[in-house]
Amino acid sequence: MIGGHRTSMRLEPSMWDALEDIGRREGLTVNRLCTQIKERIEEQARRRGIDPEEADVTLTSAVRVFIASYYRRACTEDGHLRAGHGGSDPFIGTPFELPAVDDVDGGQSAVAAGGSFPTPGGQSASPSTLLEA
């Protein structure tokens, strides 16, 4: 229930995880957090003189933007250094990190062959699975 209405949203599992993490940190349920995001969208529309029902912002899009903005605000230079950022490979520590060429069957990329590749957790995933998740 979002704002007292039955609502559905399609988000990637990592986005749901992020919402739960943010809710836990802020002392809010995911439903309450999403309700507050919806209320903010509506208030912003009203302040621009737009009927909230006519606003071109979807709740799903607003939730994704909120999550990115929330975490961007929390980023620090020290945090980026601890995460290994800035070393010319922004994919380190993400589901898109590729193993070193020496670790993949003679240097041939399984992704280029349309196959799957190991993720940092050792599980195998195809590019389409990662994008659909």
Automatic annotation (TrEMBL):
Residues 79-133 are annotated as: Disordered. Residues 121-133 have a biased composition (Polar residues). Residues 2-70 form the Ribbon-helix-helix domain. Transmembrane segments: none annotated. It comes from the Bacteria. This is Ribbon-helix-helix domain-containing protein. It comes from Azospirillum lipoferum (strain 4B). The lineage of its organism: Bacteria, Pseudomonadati, Pseudomonadota, Alphaproteobacteria, Rhodospirillales.
